[in-house]
Each structure stands twice: as C-alpha cells, then as structure tokens.
Amino acid sequence: MKIGIYPGSFDPITLGHLDVITRASGLVDKLIIGVLKNSAKKPLFTADERVALIEQVLKEKKNLPDIQVKAFDGLLIDFASQQNASIIVRGLRAITDFEYELQIAQTNHKLNPVIDTVFFTTSVEYSYLSSSAVKEIASFGGDIRQFVPECIVQAVYDKYKMIRRV
Fold it and tell me: Where does this protein hold ATP (predicted)?
C-alpha cells in the first residue's frame, strides 16, 4: 500500500489545499493530511480544531478515496516514517516556494532516503491563495467564500468574533 503525507498548518484549509488533496489522493492508496502543531506560530485554530475542520470538508467531498487527518508535532520525516509513508506531498505556488521546499525535501531525503517528496504546482486559480491572506480578509469582515470550502466559512468568522470578545 502506497501511503502519502500532505503536511501543513491548514489554518484554515483553503480551496488551494483542497485542490492539492484531491490531486494527490490519486497518486496514493492512502493520503494522510498531517496537521502541524507548530509551537513557534500562533495559529487562529488549535490543531484539534483544524483537524475537525478538514474532516468536515472531506465529509462533503464524497468522491475522495482513503484520506485520514492527523495532528503531529516534531519532524515531518519522523511522522512520515511512523505512518509508513513513502511520499511527502507539497504544494508550490511560486518559484520562491520551490527554493524553500527543495531544501526541505533534500534534507528529508538525507534523513530518510526511502521517503520521496512530490511537488504539485497549484492550479492557476489558486496560485495567489494562502491561509494568511484568508485570515487577514476574514479579520476585517471581508468575504472569504471564494477562498475556503463553504462548510467552514462561518467557523472562520465565528473564531474572529470570539477573539474580539476576549
């Protein structure tokens, strides 16, 4: 069984992420979306909330094969090994992404040569899209419906309402 890991913060998951998930799921028998618990960043959603949001999105996409969502911390290569993955999936929006991702892929390959990294260029309609941009737009009450799956739009707005009350 060929297992792939698509890691990221997914804070929140965007249509660009979903595009990569859909395409990458065709490469492997099982795709694990690895939600990074990064203590260096201050995410909008907790890791558990991000896992739940992704699972909600996947539930609505009935045509996707075996996909699991798991939170992890530590080294990605260690997580991939623990999951018996042979492929790490990464999305590229621009050439600057490639330079950064290439270094990480080469380092990961040095740490574990059995695991390869596969790059997906984003579809043109999502090449500008990032979770950071979505959060900035949402924080000012802007319309994010064209950037994230419909089923999580309200969750993003509700999170900002909750933050403003605190």
Answer: 9-10, 17, 91-93, 101, 126-132
